[in-house]
Design a protein that fits this description.
- This protein has 429 residues and is an alpha/beta fold.
- The chain folds into three domains: 89 residues, Probable tRNA modification gtpase trme, domain 1 (Gyrase A, domain 2, 2-Layer Sandwich); 142 residues, Four Helix Bundle (Hemerythrin (Met), subunit A) (Up-down Bundle), CATH 1.20.120; 161 residues, Rossmann fold.
- It is built from 15 helices and eleven strands.
- Strands 7-8-6-9-10-11 form a six-stranded mixed beta sheet, with helices on both faces.
């Protein structure tokens, strides 16, 4: 599908279109795309359906024409060449969505949701992107900004009319409203980790000594044989990375070389990469052979990194030394315990699926930085109010908070911010 947007869309498209005149908005018509040849003749490039969307009732808010042809790399390239030869130009990355934002069709959070929708890897990520595209996050932020604006108006009224003193009851109500705004910011900031997981996935390092079944666990989680499995210690010499969808959560599984002392140069290089993967992991699955006596742990994880001990080879029976050890018992050969492992990973990462499913509005890193700035300003404003400092100082902090919240939805839109956001889009969105 080819999309053409702008005030001259119909004029330019008419130069390479042979079919009914596109006067009736939202009506598909059949016609052909032609291109002028070197000898002045016109060659048919493709046949398909064209639809005209009159601005502002279009995706970009401008006049838009969409042509749907037969597809295929070569024919689509020729259609694009014909339209470019007629006077159009290639869109910049994200330009259609940027125009939609500039024409008020989307706020900035909805525009960012378009990219989240394209890159979603799981159903939960897709649902979260749809929620944001529908404007739920923008609505909450605009309501929050409106509340801060109301607080600012109250404080500035007191500044302008000092004779209308704010009595203690009114002051207490003002602080309570400020606390409600601070709590709303806190709740949104609490979704940052959730948003990071849904958008980027969780780097999950599968670590442990040689021959405990790390590669077998990777294959079992993937559902196909990706890693070579062998009884020979040191078979895995490098890290392997694959993405899976585990109960709606994207996991970036990293199979690592067995952690042990080795004189083999190649194996030592693989072990060094294993330690690097472990250091950067957001989740560690430490695998051990439950059928063998417990040995000293070889895995050292970063404090605070979610960690699960997985005892493999449950089908061979458990060695008494493991009795009472908190772990997930599985058999990578039979599949026993894999559902329990999936449930444990989900619970560890989400704190319970119900918590996540209850509210899929999740902020991204840009939103987080702006809201942290807003929280700092709101905290400062509260301290100034409760300690009876000059109200001008509190008003300044409230303005800073309102500015930071407005930046999230794009009510302040410096060019460098827009360039940064829309530059991450693919061409044609």
């Amino acid at each position: 599908m080819l999309r053409l947007s702008g005030p001259r869309a119909r004029e330019i498209f008419a130069r390479c279109w042979r079919g009914p005149v596109l006067d009736d908005p939202r009506r598909s018509v059949l016609g052909r795309i032609v291109r002028v040849q070197a000898d002045g003749g016109r060659a048919v490039v493709d046949e398909g359906l064209a639809v005209f969307f009159a601005g502002p009732a279009s995706y970009t808010g401008e006049d838009v024409i969409e042509f749907s042809g037969h597809g295929g790399v070569l024919v689509t390239r020729r259609v694009l060449d014909a339209v470019l030869a007629a006077g159009a130009r290639l869109a910049d990355p994200g330009e259609f969505t940027q125009r939609a934002f500039l024409h008020g069709r989307l706020d900035l959070t909805q525009a960012e949701a378009v990219m989240d929708l394209i890159s979603a890897q799981t159903d939960l990520a897709l649902q979260a992107a749809h929620e944001q595209l529908a404007g739920r996050l923008g609505e909450r932020l605009l309501a929050l900004r409106g509340e801060v604006l109301g607080l600012l108006a109250h404080v500035e009224a007191f500044i302008d009319f000092p004779e209308e003193d704010i009595d203690p009851d009114t002051g207490a109500v003002l602080v309570a409203r400020l606390d409600a705004a601070r709590e709303a910011v806190h709740r949104l900031l609490a979704t940052a980790d959730q948003g990071r997981v849904l958008r980027d996935g969780v780097r999950t390092a599968i670590v442990g000594p040689p021959n405990v079944g790390k590669s077998s666990l990777l294959n079992r989680l993937l559902g196909f044989d990706r890693a070579i499995v062998s009884d020979i210690a040191g078979t895995t010499r490098d890290t392997l990375e694959e993405v899976i969808n585990l109960r709606g959560l994207p996991l970036r599984l990293i199979d690592t070389a067995g952690l042990r002392e080795s004189d083999d140069v190649l194996e030592r290089a693989g072990i060094e990469r294993s330690h690097a993967a472990l250091a950067g992991a957001g989740l560690v699955l430490e695998v051990a052979d439950g059928s063998q006596p417990k040995s000293q742990p070889t895995t050292v994880t970063n404090p605070g990194t979610p960690h699960l001990l997985v005892l493999n080879k449950a089908d061979l029976g458990e060695d008494p030394s493991w009795h009472g050890t908190a772990a997930i018992r599985v058999s990578c050969s039979s599949g026993e315990g894999m559902e329990a492992l999936a449930a444990a990973i989900e619970s560890l990462l989400t704190g319970g699926a119900v918590t996540w499913n209850a509210d899929l509005v999740s902020i991204n890193a840009r939103h987080q930085a702006c809201l942290q700035e807003a929280r700092t300003a709101l905290d400062a404003a509260r301290d100034l109010l409760v300690t009876s400092q000059p109200p001008e100082l509190a008003a300044e902090e409230l303005r800073a908070a309102m500015q930071a919240i407005g930046t999230v939805v794009g009510q302040t839109n410096p060019e460098e911010l827009l360039g940064l956001i829309f530059g991450q889009f693919c061409i044609g969105k």
